[in-house]
Amino acid sequence: MKNRYMQEALNEAWKYQFLTYPNPAVGACVVKDGKILSVEAHHEAGNPHAEVNALKSSFLKQYPNSQLKNITSSNDIHDFLISNHNNFFNTCEIYVTLEPCNHIGKTPACANLLKCINIKKVYIGTLDPNDKASGGLNTLKNSNIDVEINIMKKECDDLLYPFLKWQKDNFLFFKMAIRKDGTCDGGYITTQDSLNLVHEIRTKIDLLIIGGNTVRIDRPTLDTRFAKINKPSDILIYSNQKEFDKEINLFKVPNRDVSISNVISSVKSNFSMYEGGYRLLNHIKEDIDMFMLFVSHKDKLSKEYDIESLGFKKIHSYFLNDYDEVVFLK
To answer: Of 8, 12, 40, 51, which residue is the catalytic one?
Structure first.
């Protein structure tokens, strides 16, 4: 059962992979008397952490009319639960993909919250390698809270990998959309839900890299008009030819820098995304850290493409809707 509950936390966290930058994607699952009360994730840097969201949702299951439902800031949720937990969490267990943070930054320390509400037990997927935030394990143990670590550690490490990489130097991933049979021609392939997600990710990255042929043929805009906040990313066009028609839409988007280079090693940003097709992928596949593939199941196709034939191993996938599958490979 431990793996089942941790898998629930992992599944939720992957939905927010890359959207939490510069924070890691983290999931949490609260269980009481063998029943799942809530499964939540960290959604965005500066907002409540996964544990806080999960504890809030669990508390509201028991007290649906509590004023907590109108409280959104992490500090206020912490304060409310510490003052009003009514020993509700004494028989609860929480499964967290990453060691609860032990420092006060934009949000209070989750380890302290778990200590103050006297939660019964904490299951941790993997320990936090960030010295600034680590130490939650010791805080919990020193408070006589039962803790078990390394639950589905490999899977939790896979989830954490982008964070580790952009903390260390830089993280580069490739985004591509295909149909179930592997084809990727003929305009938009996936639904609006996938487009919305891609636009949200573009607001988080430091740099978007696109192939020169794609720019010339598709004449894309590559903006963020479908994101909650319109914050276009800077662009690097990967091309040997330096001349482009400046009437192409991507050059007209305000508040962005567009550069042209044929040297990918010149990329120095912490968090970069490549967008393109098979041709660009084959050129730079040795340089990327992760592959995010949007697979459309909208067309009833009998042939199914073996995505691992691209040279990457599938580590997680989920469906955005009835048609669009999001697959992560590394």
So the answer is: 51
Work out the average pLDDT over 133-143: 83
Q: Chain-centre distance of CA 256, in angstroms?
A: 24
CATH architecture of the domain formed by 170-329: 3-Layer(aba) Sandwich (3.40)
Q: Specify the pLDDT at position 186.
A: 74
**Does residue 141 register a pLDDT over 70?**
yes
325 is catalytic: no
**145: closest CA among 173, 110, 111?**
111
pTM: 0.94
Among the four given CATH numbers 3.30.479.30, 3.30.470.20, 3.40.140.10, 3.40.250.10, the one describing domain 2-166 = 3.40.140.10
- Distance between CA 161 and CA 15 in Å, rounded? 15
> Is the Cβ–Cβ distance between 96 and 9 less than 8 Å?
yes
Mean pLDDT, the chain, as a whole number? 93
Strands laid side by side in the 92-98 sheet: 35-41, 27-32, 92-98, 121-126, 146-148
| CATH 3.40.430.10 location in the chain | 170-329
